[in-house]
Design a protein that fits this description.
The complex is a heterodimer.
Chain A (H helix, E strand, L loop, with lengths): L2 H23 L2 H17 L9 H22 L2 H15 L3 H11 L2 H11 L5 H8 L3 H20 L6
Chain B lengths: L8 H9 L5 H13 L4 H5 L17 H4 L11 H27 L4 H8 L13 H20 L5 H36 L3 H6 L8 E2 L18 H11 L3 E3 L23 E4 L4 H9 L1
Antiparallel strand pairs in B: 1-3, 2-3
The chains are: A mainly alpha, B mainly alpha.
Chain lengths: ~160, ~280
């Protein structure tokens, strides 16, 4: 991948990767750091990574960074605080976007990841499998479960209120 | 064709909801659901929910990711900022600590000796011995003052002492040949006729001359020296040794007086090779 192609990746995919990470970890500063780190890794490996595979590679690297970050936060005891914050938000939200955020937070991490990759990025099940290290069948199972959960939360308002 | 089981039934249901199954696969799924009616409930109220793309979520720092530096490192504010902060803290520390360094007063003499690699000695090529000695004394005194100055930090005093010792040893090494010559001159000058007599010792094989008159002229034209000078030269050059045999002591009372005016008759003892020279000298 050339320098120009790398820069093209920044313009094309930075928003997508950022959205994916932010929706998963819900922490802007951490999400920015992960994006920065992911693109830095992409540049370091730019001679090995082909331009066509750059997007998948970016998501894969960002996901791995994200998992590391989540583990660090858990070790630091931040997870409990977040859960409390989530509950508070759930009681206070009013708009659709907040409702969607709340519903996403109720999903298990893997379900959230795969459904974000599918709906936000339009990846095929096979591509999602490559990014997440799951089989195609597993990806489908997780997405099916995620859609059912989202439906339960969002379609039936009483579950939210 | 894959078989349907409890582990992948949800994958099949997803494909069904998305209309991805062909007729054969649909028949297979219907057959499985007929055998396992509990999974029919999963489809009964299932209305797939698709996440809307939130276009308003964007990464605003793309510029920082672009145009990586030639070293290959992508510079970003979050990476540069800690380094800038560290540099600023270091600079602030230096500024704050500077007055502390300044408070340790160093007088100009010590500063000069610290900054110059060598302590320059005065040009004494045309100076008299007295002037040189005086200059040296003054210099030593100055350095002592510097070393004993209370405001000079101990570490600096040690440095100065070491430097002074090094300089002293260099000077000694430089003057060593001249000093040896000077000492030898002083030794010879201090020899009196009595000492010549006392230092007599017979050297086997050496030639003893006839009694020598104490005053004669050297071979060099127009140059006359005293006998004591000649003798000293001879002694120094090891060409000959002078002695006064004890048997002649009574005849030579002035030899034992040790006075400068004494002109004793002496004998010279020379090595075999020096016999002709001495004879020639004495016969002139």
């Amino acid at each position: 991948m050339t320098r120009e192609e790398y820069n093209s990746c920044v313009h094309k995919y930075a928003d997508n990767v950022y959205r994916f990470v932010l929706k998963n970890i819900r922490h802007e500063a951490d999400a920015e750091d992960i994006i920065q780190n992911s693109f830095e890794i992409l540049w370091k490996k730019h001679q090995e990574v082909k331009f066509e595979k750059a997007k998948s590679y970016l998501f894969m690297v960002a996901r791995n960074n994200m998992i590391d970050q989540i583990r660090k936060r858990k070790r630091a005891g931040i997870a409990d605080d977040e859960s409390k914050a989530d509950r508070m938000v759930a009681n206070e939200y009013t708009g659709a976007s907040e409702a969607l955020d709340y519903a996403l937070r109720q999903l298990p991490a893997k379900q959230r990841e795969v459904i974000l990759l599918r709906d936000y990025e339009g990846y095929s099940y096979q591509e999602i499998g490559e990014i997440t290290g799951l089989s195609e069948s597993q990806v489908k199972v997780y997405i099916f479960r995620a859609r059912r959960t989202l439906q339960t939360i969002l379609v039936n308002p009483e579950n939210v209120l | 064709m894959k078989r349907i089981n409890k582990n992948n039934i949800e994958a099949w249901l997803l494909d069904f909801s998305e209309g991805q199954l062909n007729e054969e696969e649909l028949a297979l799924l219907e057959s499985y659901l007929a055998e396992n009616p509990e999974y029919k409930e999963l489809l009964s109220n299932f209305e797939p929910f698709y996440l809307p793309i939130e276009e308003d979520i964007v990464f605003n720092k793309k510029d920082a990711l672009l145009n990586p530096s030639p070293s290959g490192r992508v510079l970003h504010f979050s990476f540069i900022f800690p380094r800038l902060m560290a540099a600023a803290v270091l600079l602030a520390a230096m500024v704050l600590l500077w007055p502390l360094f300044q408070s340790q007063k160093i007088n100009p003499e010590m500063r000069a000796s610290l900054t110059s690699p060598e302590i320059h000695l005065p040009d004494n090529r045309h100076a008299t011995k007295k002037q040189i000695l005086k200059g040296q004394e003054e210099k030593n005194k100055k350095e002592e003052n510097v070393l004993s100055h209370e405001t000079v930090p101990l570490a600096n005093r040690t440095v100065l002492r070491e430097r002074k010792e090094k300089e002293k040893s260099k000077e000694e090494a430089r003057e060593a040949p001249f000093r040896t010559k000077q000492l030898e001159k002083e030794r010879i000058a201090s020899i009196t006729p009595n000492q010549v007599y006392n230092s007599y010792s017979e050297i086997p094989g050496w030639y003893v001359t006839k009694p020598v008159a104490m005053s004669f002229t050297l071979p060099q034209p127009n140059e006359e020296r005293s006998s004591s000078t000649l003798m000293q030269s001879l002694l120094h050059s090891e060409v000959a040794r002078a002695f006064i045999p004890e048997t002649l002591e009574e005849d030579l009372p002035q030899a034992k007086s040790g006075s400068n005016d004494a002109k004793p008759v002496i004998y010279l003892q020379v090595p075999p090779a020096g016999k002709k020279i001495i004879d020639k000298l004495l016969n002139r």
